[in-house]
Amino acid sequence: MVHSDAENAPGAPEIIATRQQTRFHIAEDKRSSDVSIEQLTLSIRTSPVASKAGKTVKTVKSKAGSGAAKTKDILVDTNLRLKAGVHYGLLGRNGSGKSTLLRALAGKMIPGLSLATKIVLLQQTATGSGSDSDTSAAIEPREKKPVLQYILEGDEEKNKLSEELNILTQIDPGDGDELGRLRAYRRLLYTRLARELTEAQKNAALRSGARGSQARKDLITMEKKVEEAHNRVDNIEEPLDAKECQDELAEASRLTAELQADLDERRLGDQEARPRKILSALGFTEQMMQQPFNELSGGWQMRCMLASTLLQDADIMILDEPTNFLDLLGIIWLQKYLVDLRTEANKTVVVVSHDRDFIDHVCEEIIMIKDESLVYFEGNLTAYEEDLKSRRQNLTRLKEAQEKQTAHMEKTIANNIRAGKKHGDENKLRQAVSRQKKLEDRMGMQTNAKGGRFKLSRDMAGFHSSKRAAIDIPPEEAAVSITIPVAPDLRFPGALVSLDHVWFSYGPKEASIIQDVSLSIHMGSRVGIVGLNGSGKSTLIKLVTEVTSPTRGTVARHPRLKLGYYSQLAVEELRAAGMADPSMTALSTLAAEAGDEMDEADMRGFLASFHLAGNTASHVPIAKLSGGQLVRLALARIVWNHPHLLVLDEVTTHLDFYTVQALSRSLRAFNGALLLVSHDRFFVKSVIEGDAELLGSDEEEEEEDEEEQTKAEMKRDLYLMKKGKLTRLANGVRDFEESLESRVDKLLAA
């Protein structure tokens, strides 16, 4: 069975989903939190790029010359399984297809999904949270409404009732009372049939064989009904006192009363209590709740859409990078909220996140996209990695032991054959044949699929082509690496940046955002700053990077200092520049920074070290790069000239956890200084606090890290920024976590 997403804009990738044929009935009229799809293949097909005028600019043909579109497989013949009430973490590298799979699932593009199942999706880079209902007509006016109203109107069932009631009660002033009510009633019937037509279209696309043929016949019948209903809205020819018209008017009155009663029932109680509670936990003030949604910044809009998603009555809730733009208080609140949600046994949750601590707390099972397949593991991410490491070690030891045993047996067999032939000893030759058969039968996996001891008569009864499966050691993940150039010598010592009793405010009568902060950063320093949004972290960064100057106090810099600054808006700024100039590429962007100091070959090699190689660097427009690729490009822009000090503000946003690990390793080995602002606890612990175990380092790597730290005379400090003041955290990020956990418990109990 095949389903294709044909609702894309011209030139946008098209999602194609196929699955194994099934002779069992698909219950499209029943809601379900379970998903079981066998032999799923998911692909994206790119169409010719369209110009603004709608004309094709460039057609990319395959080598065979058959057509202009290119198809890329995301998943091939794999099984998609979701169990009701389970929280899953969907993991995979940037570009592995996580967002494509989530979109296909939320849009019900996968054959076999129940059409009645309610699925809600919070997308990573969307302008709004998506769901299985078509609410596009209501998006524009809703965006202009205050945040609290925006959230309240996210209740799709309530919106549907309100829409139908509005249709019945809004009468054209040009019509008489009865004529207007009759026209409104027929308009409502047409609206309902149009909704049924959408479901019939999905049904016809999802079915095949005899049921598919019947579904397509039903679709044709439904299309005729919709057309007839549309014609009846405006063509009222029969007299209003006719029995049919009077029956319709009576039904209109009954429906109006019924819809009004349903809405009144939904409005009972404090409808705003739960939305206010969630918005407050996500950092919204009362004033912000009354602010129009479309006037919020992108980060606050994402928080608002997260709140709206959490309030949906969904069978399957999908959250794509929900921790982006949240501070640590919001992250801890969300993880506890989702853990408490496990009591709702029928709500399945699928989460994509680069925040390892968040995944470990929230997710009960892991789904890994790997080699165009879905791999399942019962346990969180840490348990998955420990299990994988343990299996590799055990299987490696078993394989090595068997290889030694095999070598010994082969030597014995060869000696027996040689001796048997030399002396004509048939017993020796039979013994050699027997040992060869034993060697073939008993070598391989010693355990069965259930983990018990392998037994040939039980585990491979009947005809078989081989006795036991070979020992298959799970391969190591292809290493992700990010190369940060070595910082040059300063020639004479001194602090790179020194803040001495610094204060800052935006005006003489304004409150001080930074209050009496003193901080020194030397070569090799590892300085981390944590704190809630609005505490003054970004302002402090601006003082360090000379974006602004202090109101009082002094900021001194080493005269030979080279500084690299990654802003938390770096990705958005690159994306906006790419939209303004479609010809911009990663290569041209770096060329604009480096000027004549690097030739093209050097720039290509440098970008390749950030996994922006070949055509990706020189031919793919910046506007088409993924969030992770834009982060790597932004990093390349600030480190190409060998800076002494790196200032990184929320650099892990948009990166997958493999790349976060690689960046952590690279920053640990960096000989220069680092000033890091981040809400990612794993990143802070591994880079600032120097916890090598989090990166899975072996003893040899840890010794090398210690040598590097000794050479650079590393000083590690983690500070809490609170109300403009800087306080050192003696026990690291755990101190901050504990202080926030008590606040979150109060928020959840309120």
UniProtKB/TrEMBL annotation:
Organism, scientific name: Dichotomopilus funicola
In terms of InterPro entries, this protein maps to: AAA+_ATPase, ABC_tran_Xtn, ABC_transporter-like_ATP-bd, ABC_transporter-like_CS, ABCF, P-loop_NTPase
Q: Which domain of life is it from?
A: Eukaryota
User: Which GO terms of the molecular function aspect are on file?
Assistant: ATP binding; ATP hydrolysis activity
Sorted keywords for this record are: ATP-binding, Nucleotide-binding, Repeat
* Name recorded for this polypeptide: ABC ATPase
In this chain the ABC transporter domain maps to 44-396, 497-721
Any Pfam family hit: ABC_tran_Xtn
